[in-house]
Amino acid sequence: MSNQYEAYDVVVVGAGHAGCEAALACARLGFNTIMFTVSMDNIALMPCNPNIGGTSKGHLVREIDALGGEMGKNIDKTYIQSKMLNQSKGPAVHSLRAQADKMDYSREMRKVVENTENLTLRQDEVIDILTENNQVTGVMVYSGGVYPCKAVILCTGVYLNARCIYGETSHYTGPNGLPSANHLTESLKKLGIEMYRFKTGTPARIDKRSIDFTKMEEQFGDETVVPFSFTNTPEDIEKEQVSCWLTYTNENTHQIIRDNIHRSPLYSGNIKGTGPRYCPSIEDKVVKFPDKERHQVFIEPEGNYTNEMYISGMSSSLPEDVQFKMYRSVSGLENAKIVRNAYAIEYDCINPMQLKSSLEFMSISGLFSGGQFNGSSGYEEAAAQGLMAGINAARKLSGKEPIVLDRSQAYIGVLIDDLVTKETHEPYRMMTSRAEYRLILRQDNADLRLTKIGHEIGLISEERYEHLIEKERMIKEEMIRLENSLIGASKEVQEILESLGTTSLKTGTTLAELVRRPELTYALLEPLDKNRKPLSDEVITQVEINFKYDGYIKRQEHQVEQFKKLEGKKIPEEIDYSDVPSLRIEAKQKLNQIRPSSVGQASRISGVSPADISVLLVYLEQLRRSK
Amino acid sequence: MKTDTIAAIATGLSNAGISIVRISGDQAFAVIDKVFQIKSKAKRLSEMESHTVHYGYIVDGEELIDEVMVVIMRAPRSYTMEDSIEIDCHGGITVTKKVLETVLKAGARIAEPGEFTKRAFLNGRIDLSQAEAVIDVIHANNELALKNSMKQLKGNVLHKVKEVRQSILLDTAYIEAALDDPEHISLEGFSDKLRENVMGSIKELSNLIDTSENGRLIKEGIRTVILGRPNAGKSSLLNLMVGEERAIVTDIAGTTRDTIEESIFLNGLCLNLIDTAGIRETSDLVEKLGVEKSLKSAKEADLIIYVIDASTPLNQDDDEILEFIKDRKAIVLLNKTDLESVIEEKDVNLLSTKPILKISALNQTGIKELEKTITEMFFEGNISFNDEIYITNVRHKNALVEARVSLEQVIVSIENEMPEDFFSIDLMNAYEVLGTIIGEAVDEDLVNTIFKEFCMGK
Questions:
Q1: How far is B122 from chain A (nearest CA, A)?
Q2: Are B63 and B183 within one domain?
């Protein structure tokens, strides 16, 4: 007889980056929430790289923040170096990345979750999901105790049947020797859920005192730091930054790897899981790109109060003795003392095509999931899904329609749409090239795109909402003002233009036209702009981008319009594609499996042709009219 | 740029007097205003009343394409319930095609097979009871179009398109890899290299577009199969019509063991001439295969030219061929009239109702009459053929032009010193559009290429 404990609205399984966002969203939206973790001391743990953001991932964090999530605020509190990547490129690919003090990051997030109303924390392993008539009713923990609930959000990360491997050595644990969760997979399989086995890996950590930094190039942070959170200003978070270091592998390193490649579990067949192409181990790089003479290695601090350094670019699952030789062959690491070994980790996750776009399982009402459990990789991807799963679980309990961001609204939309629509056979990583409307999905306008939605959901305060509306108004007014500011071809004007290194005027023009010139900026035009009022940098940035990339942005907006037409055609949940005449068999199977929510989503399924979409449109119209 | 305004040739593509080009969608009037010139030049069609007919010209800039009647119908009072235009063209296939191309250039896109009917249904014009029929139309037409699209594409065209696409993909992958991993991959100086590559691709596409102007992107034309007993003079006839020694001619029966294909233009018609192995009872395995192939070609033919050696008597093989062509479009040729004839027209007349002509491939007599007969049969509508082929060509050409426009935009962006990430948008658009020619989607090509070609990641 199992004990029955108090009931919760929502149970969140796992307290990593996905779990924390999910639990915070539910609790903040007023639902009585409990979050389970195998280790209270490792909330929002960063078991791999010590940074948040990066190309396209930085976009995700800004979006999480714009919707009312926590990740952006937490990294702003705990960063130790910050950089805006791709600054020489277009604004769409500017990406924020910050080095985090890992321990600080975890501690600060713990502080937040521990002090959120409606949120209970519990160290325990969930071993069973309880259902009745395909509806979640509760979870069972290791002791046999039962917590009844209305919704469950699975954010188990890499902990299900986890195994860490280097060489011939295996540990049946999660990362950092934390306990793995070895029962839940069976429960999920019993519920008919299809499981995958993926793998990922991490490099060694090396004692700072054993590194010769004089042989390396120092990498500094940016002088002016852009915060991840739209609630912070650069001044709010200004601080002394630490450096990272750059060194390289060499032919000797590669030879050591080649000589021992037969002992790598990846090549000996000891690892069965599929790894991400984006995070190849150093042995993978050497084997797949034999012509490359050297590979970059970044040495990154794990925090301000530790000597551990993360050896970015050299993740590995080679045996321990080879690791010593390999790392010590790198310039500056000759005397390296390894604190933690590099290892690969295998874990159970799901085929995410079993999920709806709301991140609820198609087959079980009230069961949601997010993060690496859904076949993604990365802290940011995890947090983004956790947030959306949390929001949608809460909305389900309120009897509201789920929030599904589409591909033209957010990277989060691209991420989730890809996961639930396209077959993935490796941990999915966000990339800017996956976002077809990326000119519109910039990191600088995430608030303009999403904060209103966040407000409607209930995660954005009235004050923050008002601030946004005000910002929108100022952008619009300033654009109108520049459009209407006529500049005559007077001698004074020509002289100023000449001093700015730009061509002189033949006839009169407007300030807006001048801002459009590639060599000019809003700031440079100040001498010509007599009526300028002081505006914040974030307003000026928007005005500038809107003018400078006008033509390109309009073209993307036109594409988005076309895209929205099919996206807006919703497909009833109960449709049986076997009934649709003339659909090709492959299309019927794929549609029945993925069950897209809109014709637009259907059109992105590989194996569904444009003709199938036409047939589907006619069939849907037929259904509609015969009602 | 993708648009929702569609155009197509609504009538069958024969040389019958009038054919109709139809336009439908919210930009229909904008499109017609760009290409239609009213004689008086007084007003634009967008200012005219619905359901009126107008006389004037279709023009492409300065160039006059055709003298036409245009019917305008405003939404919802049209077949598709959208703004619709019908252009009655008078100039035959080539001109109708040209009118369609002009309309496409003005901003319409070519309709998918069955798309007008689909829209009519989706917009509520067609009754619910006909939904299944609508689906069947879409389905059947698409199967046909797909089959044609690839099959008709000439080998070298396929190769060229693939080459250009590959070059675009590699360059885009390089840019994207660098954007994704700026600390590992630099774009320093890449613009110059890209510019060179893109200029090269533009040149390739321009060549293909020129080719398409002559209608030679695809193997289009009237499939004309030359059939007959061995050594009746089929290959000699082909050579004569093509005007060069294309097929090997010997006096050994059964020389042509495979089919040989050549295109010729005849009074504005395109003929795909197909020479075949001679038809006879044979025990030679290779020759037998040849015979089977001949009959298969003949079954798919739009026109059969049956060559009889008039210097030898008819036999059982001839009876079989005559039976075979009975219900097909065919012309009977009595060849070798330079020799002493043992067969006369009346002998064949008893067995067949097809036109019969006397020729001598050796002395080159009777060829003019043959060409005249073929042309007449076509213009009288006795020969029809699969007109989807013509449309396929227009479709391909349109895609080539769109791809070129995108690549030219890349050059503009490079010249304006735009950041590299802007190049990708137009590069990938060109890649996608070119894919429609060879039936390939974009899918994960870019991401896969990035990982395959570049060593990425932390």
A1: 6
A2: no
